[in-house]
Design goal:
Blueprint lengths: L2 E9 L3 E2 L9 H12 L7 H10 L6 E4 L3 E2 L3 E6 L17 E6 L2 E2 L6 E6 L4 H14 L12 E9 H9 L4 E5 L6 E5 L4 H12 L3 E3 L6 E3 L8 E6 L3 E8 L8 H19 L4 H9 L13 E6 L10 E8 L7 H8 L3 E4 L6 E7 L16 E6 L3 E2 L2 H7 L12 H21 L6 E7 L24 E12 L3 E2 L10 E4 L9 E10 L5 H20 L7 H4 L17 E5 L4 E5 L1 H4 L6 H14 L4 E3 L4 E8 L12 E6 L14 H15 L7 E9 L5 E13 L3 E2 L10 E4 L2
Antiparallel strand pairs: 1-8, 1-9, 2-7, 3-8, 3-10, 4-7, 5-6, 10-14, 11-14, 12-13, 15-17, 15-19, 16-17, 18-19, 20-23, 20-25, 21-23, 22-23, 24-25, 26-28, 26-30, 27-28, 29-30, 31-33, 31-35, 32-33, 34-35
Helix pairs in contact: 2-3, 6-7, 6-8, 9-10, 11-14
């Protein structure tokens, strides 16, 4: 039978002054055990043997009461430096120094548990009982003022699991991933290092270099190892039964669900009304209580190009130090009726526990950590930031310029970084994009979320953030994070700058080179390489060819196949995935196809383009924020000719070109431009029309922007104009 060793510690007072760690690490406990059994001239041989055994165990599971930070207290005490005042004891008052104390406060009636799993051997059980005897000698844990006592138990493994499962506090477990909070733990050699350090304390003054002088020698440091510990929040997922909920009204849904759940809990636990309202609603809570507050997060439907972004699920995140039991929180939401028909009593909208939690992976839970994240619902920033960003049309008779807006957006970026820290995300972050427009075609502008919430339109922003180190989700930030605002989703590799493959033409272009010939050569080379990657007998998907299996052109209304483009002013060629053209995330099938494309395009350095030359290519990286074809702008002009998809009837050629461009812009989900100007107009030998256009949008749009009938073979490319 497997066993576990549990050392249980109870403090005389509900205060812990040890710095900087909470909970007290197992290394702290190890030192306290040694100090307790060594009070009579050092540890006995039996105690040494038991502690040597304990330091070889795997890191312990640590269970501690729910704690909060106490007030900061500064005491002024004499410094041990009498020589600085000539050795005069009467002047000891001049040596006072500040000693700062900020204890953790908790319920002293709840013990701490340190639980080690044993291997089940009889010898381990015997030594573990010796450690239990040492635990009886413990008299303090932390600083000298943190008086405590302890006792040890050897438990059956089921009893140990029950002890931790029913513990009314926070349980910290060592995690193999290394992403948790580091804590010091004993390791082989820790006991000997502590004994050596104690012995060195009595001989810290050694002969110095100068004759007759003494020098201070630091005693050796104890040897402990750092182990990552994690105490993740509990996740409950509920399906909305009966109705779906609009994305932009997420705050109203949160308020409705959390208030009903709080009322349900108060009915069952009236004595805990204040704690329930503080944990669920935030009523009566302080800044220190936010870390223990339950978070209700509506989950819009994402993960597919055609997902409508309606809310069909609700995530309830219960932090490990929540004062209400996790099971009680889950019960309060399960089966909750949110809307009832007053006449028939029919439940129009309710919550039922979800059997499938796989949708959480779209928000970074249960999947690999990601470095780049984008908002699904906008982040709410503080009012003081809004004053710097929002510019009225006229101030003092002078219109505020772009420099003021840039400075304001820099303030928003700093506010977002602060919001990340408030949400408990310590990873260094760079705010890449700040805008009111959604990042996805079927998303909602930031202003739309103000209706029904307590946040003004000016406070809401969509942002994109890149972390120096990848982080796991869900990520919810900002002042509205307890109302469903500031919800972010991770960007996978194929949803970032991959999906656009850029090749610089280093040499080989002839004077007779044409745009069409270069693009067609790139398309042929790409399909040939993809066929090699797939295998000669494997049919090539429409994603690569733009044609159906029978050879007919694809009739997909979304035109979900690769586009090929040329940027003549900068001598570059592009392969562009369809999700980048349509401003959406890639589907599962598209991500799989992009993996194949990654392999196929590796090593493409040689391109034969007929009369246009034998081109030498080099793969070029992109930065979409500054690249001439990808950065956001309000004004865009043609780089290559725009060819309309159909001829306009009963209108001039210029009017037909403009009408067709408007229809194309609407089809890909962009906001309609304020104006479309025809810069050039050409008629072909068979009555065809082509031209160059200038598009002027009300709000900035991001590239790449490819429009028209030839958008997949080099035509209709636009570039931003400053």
């Amino acid at each position: 039978m497997a066993y576990a060793l549990s050392i249980n510690v109870r403090f005389h007072e509900g205060r812990y002054h040890g710095e900087p760690d909470w909970p007290p690490s197992s290394a702290r406990l190890f030192q306290a055990l040694l100090a307790g059994c060594a009070r009579s001239g050092g540890p006995s041989d039996a105690a040494r043997s038991a502690l040597h055994w304990l330091e070889t165990r795997e890191p312990a599971v640590i269970a501690v009461p729910i704690a909060r930070m106490g007030r900061r207290l500064t005491n002024y005490v004499p410094n041990n430096d009498l020589d600085a005042v000539g050795g005069d004891p009467a002047r000891i008052g001049e040596l006072r120094v500040a000693k700062i104390s900020k204890p953790h406060l908790f319920d002293a009636a709840t013990p701490l548990h340190y639980v080690w799993r044993l291997d089940g051997s009889e010898q381990s059980e015997i030594v573990a009982r010796d450690v239990c005897g040492i635990a009886n000698t413990l008299y303090q844990l932390g600083r000298g003022v943190d008086m405590a006592w302890a006792w040890g138990e050897v438990l059956d493994e089921p009893d140990a699991a029950r002890l931790l499962a029913e513990y009314p506090g926070t349980v910290y477990r060592p995690c193999a991933s290394g992403h948790g909070e580091p804590m010091a733990c004993p390791q082989p050699g820790s006991l000997d290092s502590l004994i050596a350090r104690h012995a060195a304390q009595s001989s810290r003054w050694v002969p110095g270099i100068a004759k007759g002088k003494l020098a201070f020698a630091q005693p050796p440091r104890p040897r402990f190892k750092q182990v990552a510990y994690d105490s993740p929040p509990m996740h409950f997922v509920f399906d909305l039964e009966g109705l779906t909920w609009p994305l932009e009204e997420c705050a109203a849904l949160v308020e409705l669900a959390r208030d009903r759940a709080a009322d349900r809990l108060v009915d069952k636990l009236p004595a805990m009304k204040a704690q329930i309202e503080r944990a669920l609603i935030g009523r009566g809570g302080t800044e220190a209580d936010k870390a223990a507050r339950v978070q209700v997060v509506p989950l819009p439907s994402i993960g597919h190009a055609h997902a409508d972004r309606m809310i069909r699920r609700l995530l309830v995140r219960v932090p490990p130090n929540c004062p209400i039991a996790h099971d009680s929180i889950g019960w309060s939401f399960s089966g909750l009726s949110l809307k009832i028909d007053a006449e028939t009593g029919e439940i129009l909208l309710g919550l039922v526990a979800a059997d499938d939690k796989s949708m959480l992976r779209y928000y970074g839970a249960g999947s690999a950590p990601a470095a780049r994240w984008r908002t699904v619902t906008p982040v709410a920033v503080p009012w003081e930031v809004v004053r710097l960003v929002s510019s009225p049309p006229v101030v003092g008779g002078d219109r505020r310029g772009g420099s003021h807006r840039i400075a304001g957006q820099a303030q928003v970026a700093r506010a977002v970084q602060q919001a990340l820290r408030h949400a408990g995300i310590s990873a260094s972050a760079d705010v890449k994009r700040i805008q009111h427009e959604p990042f996805e075609t079927k998303g909602k502008r930031a202003e739309a979320f103000a209706h029904g919430s307590r946040f003004a339109e000016e406070r809401l922003w969509h942002v994109e953030v890149e972390f120096k180190d990848a982080v796991a989700g869900p990520v919810v930030i900002g002042d509205g994070r307890y109302l469903g605002l500031g919800l972010m989703r991770p960007l996978a590799g194929a949803e970032r700058e991959t999906g656009v493959y850029c090749f610089a033409i280093e040499a080989g272009l002839t004077a007779a080179a044409t745009e069409v010939e270069c693009v067609r050569a790139l398309r042929r080379a790409t399909m040939a390489r993809v066929q090699d990657a797939l295998g000669r007998r494997v049919p090539m998907p429409t994603f690569f060819t733009g044609h159906e299996r029978d050879g007919a052109p694809s009739r997909d209304a979304e035109h979900s196949h690769l586009a090929f483009a040329i940027d003549p002013p900068r001598a570059r060629l592009f392969v562009v995935a369809p999700h980048r053209l349509q401003g959406r995330q890639a589907t599962g099938d598209e991500r799989s196809a992009l993996d194949t494309l990654d392999i196929a395009l590796q090593g493409l350095t040689d391109l034969r383009a007929g009369a246009s030359g034998h081109l030498r290519l080099a793969f070029a990286t992109l930065d979409s924020e500054v690249d001439p074809l990808f950065r956001a702008s309000r004004v865009w002009e043609s780089v290559t000719d725009y060819h309309p998809t159909r001829h306009g009837k009963r209108m001039t050629q210029a009017e037909g070109l403009v009408a067709d461009a408007k229809a194309e812009i609407a089809r890909i989900g962009l906001a309609q431009p304020e104006s479309i100007d025809v810069l050039e107009l050409r008629s072909g030998p068979r009555g065809g029309v082509a031209g160059r256009l200038r598009l002027r949008f009300r709000v900035a749009a991001s590239g790449p922007l490819l429009l028209g009938r030839t958008r997949h073979v080099g035509g209709g490319l636009f570039a931003p104009i400053t």
